[in-house]
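Chapter review: from sequence to fold.
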Amino acid sequence: MIEFKGSHFERDVILWGVRWYVAYPKSYRQLEEMMEERGVEVDHSTLNRWVVKYALELDRRFRSRNRPIGSSWRLDETYVKIKGSWRYLYRAVDKAGATVDFRLTAKRDRKAAVRFLRRAIGQNGASKKITIDKSGANTAAIESYNAEHEAGIEIPRRKYLNNIVEQDHRAIKRVARPTLGFKSFRSAAATLTGVELMHMSRKGQLQTTAKLRPAKQFYALAA
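The token string follows.
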């Protein structure tokens, strides 16, 4: 169970605030107004602290109950602005569109791609095929992994096959856009983790004993 002890607000109120922020495109000040309309007076800075703290904890619980994904992946990266500078969100989905993994990085190079690849494989097992665009960094990362682990991951380079992951980026950026630029790398990483978590829930990636709507899945993770 996730620990909420010591908070001035009830568990359900905290979870409402976190879920609403990572599920829908809105700013913290807009969320502050929404909470106030429901009788909860909470400052937007407190809402930010809730998201940064609890999104990561909820993600850890989600990963322990994530459904298996396919062995054919699509890998790509998109851009996120943090303190006025562009940073990179590495993401991969399988050929059915299920999220494999994601990772926010400061740089877009071979080392960043290798770190992402190692974590994705560590979470989900080795892929048989990873489709990419013509990125030299991603090519070098997969080739490096193949050499290091004597793996045989195929590397198709067909941009049209990567449309799945490129379209999937949009769902994440649509929710993140109202932030008007993240103020810190830590805050960005936590917030994007929450957004990805809700996106995976909508895609039915959480293993549950009953058929639950995405909101119920989110709240069940804290139980």
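Two observations follow directly from the output. Strands lie at 72-82, 85-94, 99-105, 129-131. The longest strand covers residues 72-82.
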